[in-house]
Structure formats: structure tokens, C-alpha cells
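=== RUN LOG ===
request id: a7f3
mode: sequence -> structure
chains: 1
length: 248
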Amino acid sequence: MKAFVVFLSVAAVVRPSSFHGSGPDAVVEMVPGSDQVGGRLELFRNNAGVIIQGSVTGLTPGYHGFHVHAKGRLGDFCKDAGGHFNPFGKNHGAPEDVERHAGDLGNVEADSYGVAYINIADYHISLDPSSQTFIGGLAIVIHAGVDDLGRGGNPESLKTGNAGKRSGCGIIQVVGGSSSAYLPPQPIQRPFQPVHRPPQPVHRIPQPVHTPPQPAFHYQPHQPNYGRFELEFPPRFSPPRSFNPYYH
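=== RESULT ===
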């Protein structure tokens, strides 16, 4: 039986929630019932259910049934809290069962100092006031014994899980505006703001100019110019063949 209870208790505990940062949506201050129990629980809601975190002191070491009960009264050693919160008229069961009370949260374990550290996510209860499973104003009860999760084989198992006396209890007090109707997150509407950007100068990289090479003109004074005028200096002439330098 102990190994069976350990398995279900681990299934009910989840890693700490990191999505809440503005404080709890509900709190529970635990008061004594049949035992000198104390502690504080904080409840956080999301779109799928409720996260319960906190600690309870003054317990005996071991496992203890942990439930939401149908009434928000704590008198007569927590007996005035009534039975388990069960809006759909189902039998008692484990947190992961389809057939279960909405308030069935399984077992929590107290250490050798009698302290139970609680970190539970449950999707059958709600902090949405419009939901049939809204638990604001109801009571959370921690029991002296182990909840058999409806497997006890007797009629009482299908009602209470044979969890025994009520060691302590507390009222689920809604805080932080959770008593209003739940609205899903709405997208932020921002007015359109035109963006004014100054004109940016256009930087153009200079492109090299490719000039095809021109043929060089070579002056050749002693070659016929074929119609081009050409002045030679000094002037060149041919003396007549009959030139006689001694002739005057």
C-alpha cells in the first residue's frame, strides 16, 4: 500500500510554477483541527486550473489526505467544512482519475519534522467565479490519515477515502481581483504611429572610366605624307645637275 500511495503522490506534485509574478490569487491560512496544525497556502490560477503551493506544519510524518471541502466553515474541529467538494456527484478517486470529486487532491507527505511542502497542479478546480468548479470561499482540509484514493473496497472509500480525522483546515480567501469574472488575456491595442525617417544620403562608389588606348602618332619627316601638308626644317632642295660651285 505504501508504494502505491507514493506513486500517486508524486503524480500530483509538479515543478514550481514560474508564470505567476504578481502575487497569489487566493490564500489559505491553516488552523488546527484534531491536531495543532498551522501553515499557509497560496493558490495561483491559469487558463487550465489552479496551482497550490505552500507548507503545512504540525503533522505526523507520512502521508495525509488533502482535499477541497464543500463548505467554507471551520467549526467543530473542521467538521463543519462538510464533505468533499463534488459538484458533479461523482465517487471519490485519485487526482488523475476521471471518476473523482473535484476536490480530490490526493495525498501530501509530511517529513520527519511534521512539515508538508505542497506544490500541486490540478485541472478539476478553478478560481474562475463563472465556473462550476470555483473554489473561492470553500475550505481546504488536511487529514490525519492516508487517503486510499477510492481503492479501499468499501462504501466509505468512495466517499472520503478513509482518510480519518481532520488535522487542520483553512478558508480559500480570494485576493487580487480574482473574484471578478475571468477574462482571457487580451492583446494590447496600440495606436498606429507613423515612423518618420530622415532621408538618407545615397553613397555611390565611383566607377573607373575605361578609355580605350589611342594609337600614337609618329612624325616621320622623310617619308611621303600622301597629301598631308608637311613642313620640313631646314628646307631640303636638290641642286641642279649642272650646278658648278666655281661658276659665277
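=== NOTES ===
The longest strand covers residues 38-45.
Helices lie at 2-12.
=== END ===
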